[in-house]
Amino acid sequence: MKILGNIDFLTEDNVNRSNIMLIARTIESDNISHAYMFCGNNMELLSKLALVFAASINCLDNGCGDCIICRNTKRGVYPNILIVEPEGNILRIEEIARLQKFMNLSSYNPGKKICVIKESELMNQEAANRLLKTLEDPPDDDSIFILLTEDISIILPTVVSRCLVYSWNFKFDEDTQRKADFEVMEKYLNEGIKNIIMLQENQIRASTASMDLTLRLVEILKKMEAGVKTDLEKEFIEIRKSDFEKSDVNKYIEILKSKHKRKINKFHNLGISRVFDIISAWLEDILVVKLGAGEKSLNFSKNYLFISKNIKNIKIEKIFKLMEVIEGNRSYLNYSINSELALDNIFLQFQNIYR
Ligand SMILES: [Zn+2]
Known about the structure:
Elements: H1 2-5, H2 14-28, E1 35-39, H3 43-58, H4 68-74, E2 81-84, H5 93-104, E3 113-117, H6 125-136, E4 143-149, H7 157-161, E5 164-167, H8 174-201, H9 207-241, H10 246-290, H11 304-310, H12 316-333, H13 339-351
Parallel strand pairs: 1-4, 1-5, 2-3, 3-4
Helix pairs in contact: 3-4, 5-6, 8-9, 8-10, 9-10, 9-13, 10-12, 12-13
Bound molecules: zinc ion.
């Protein structure tokens, strides 16, 4: 059970530990049930977990992590594995039919045939009923189903009752994801500013570097925004499945949309605001190095050597001027004006720092 025990995206709590122990025991004693349901708050990580479980079932060494069976199963390309997922917002009966066809074939490779059903809460009634029949009467002893869901409460209770249910706690949460996004953004920004400074010290036009930087940052901001949008889609699905009157559903969706627009604006501004903070910190650091201060007085002390080596041609009054420009542009952020333009403007000004 080496790979199941070594998963780094699970929190180390009692629930996960006892889940892993139970699963390890069933694999080692070859006493595997034919239907499992994994729930948890992140579909991507649930899928990873299901594939690791599937790999451990078929691996000759109960989950070594390294053999061809483990490696290909984890990538989802082992012939004994079928992954089924919804198209758009519904998991339809056609997909369940595909699953049944796969399960009725004899397996290509030795071992169990394992079907992973992602977002199983999105099965419509028809599909759920069809799957239920298969769960009640599986084609043979070598068929295993792993249903995945982020919300077990909306799955047909008859389907749930046919499965061994395991709830998982992931380390992942929205905040960590957002923090990771910010880290990427900061990395690009620091590299970009260094590029602009170095290029100019060498008297080469820096406009390509600054344009490139703007585009990269805008791309990251858009990606972060898309993350916020995905949450909204999920909420819509929930509402549409409810028993409310159609007119009430529409009204509620409108409310959510406007709430979400505010959330995205806020988030977007937060992202750009962070970009501005970092540029300001760089300017302050350049300034104090120019004035002869030591490494310890810098915002980013690790940049001390770079700055003292590369900024001898920069005039102090240019730095003050640039700081003013940044504060001026910052006030525009409150009105959520095109962020691409704001960034472009800042980097354009940055290029003039030597002139
Ligand atoms: Zn293996």
